[in-house]
Specification:
By secondary structure, this protein is α/β, with parallel strands linked by helices. It is built from 9 helices and 15 strands. The protein folds into 2 domains: about 140 residues, no CATH class; about 230 residues, von Willebrand factor, type A domain (Rossmann fold), CATH 3.40.50.410. The strands form 3 sheets. The protein has a 6-stranded antiparallel sheet with strand order 1-2-15-10-12-11, with no helix packed on it.
Length: about 375
Amino acid sequence: MKTAMADRAPSNAVLLVLGAGLWACGPDRLVATLPPDVRVDAYTQQAASKIDVLWVVDNSGSMAPRQESLGRNFSAFIDTFTRSSVDYRVAVTTTDIFKDKGALKGNPRVITPQTPNVATAFANNIKVGIQGSPFEAGLEGGRLAIEAQKAANAQTIEQCKRACPTQNRSACLAQCDAKKDFAFLRPDAYLYLVFVTDEEDESREDVRFYYRYYETVKGIGNDGMVTTAAIMGLAGNGCNATPGLRYKELSDLTGGEVGSICDTNFSTTLKKLATNAVGLKRKFALQEKPNVMTIEVRVKYPCNTPDANLSKCVRLDRAACMEPGISPSEYGLVCTPPFKGTDGWDYEPGQNLVFFAGDSVPGLNAQVELQYFEEGKGP
């Protein structure tokens, strides 16, 4: 499976020298040293800075309560974008390729960080109704929406060129060709598509066709900038929803996540999709096999990190931030995340990595330190 999100957010792993200082913040400060034979694998959490999110929503007869629930729980999705300082655009279209044909729905049609009351705007836009075609073609609906936006962006460029004055015209034309401030489908933004439906996709082309199409939207070589996800029927989900096997296949190919349309509360799924969308990594590899009982996990943040971003720490060491002369941007906050549970970390021996679940996922630019003795060693 291609992991587009991993491509988007490189781990920047650095293996620290044994015995090196962990909290050296300045020449006059005390430095904590490690015991012999201890390793520390260090990573910096990164994320995409610009993301365009297209929701392709089933508007057939059974979807009203699901649209309502998505609207109620949208804050679980967009809060991750806000905490990660992502410049986002959010738009909605439908699975009805006959009437809507990929048209963006709602008012405003594109939601941005500057939109008043973002959650309410999305809750209104996501209610696309239940009068759509029973022929639900989400993959094609997404393609039509992108093609319509590409045409709109091309028209914007042409209008810009027509307005170029005679003087310095060549420079003006070049600026028009380099435009990036489109309402949606910005050239320098990642594209994240979320399909929401309780039926299987009925688009005419095979999944590989749509995979090739979506992966080339950003141009050859930029395939890692497009990811698809789905909230859909899952096998054995226990509600009246047909498994969306085609959506799952496409999401697997692009490195996206899937969640169940049968959930009564979409908040958990929306958090998972948001983390996937912005590229925050959940998994951090260990460079060597560890003595599992000695693994310690620390996540370091700048001193000016808001308390809301640190709420899941079972221990928070602020001592370095209290020292005279320390800059608010220095990494003086040391968070110890929970071990296991819905919002904790765990070790996965099969892949030799530490996995962060739920709200324990390290935030943007956090420094992750995994300390351990190698297998067969330890106190």
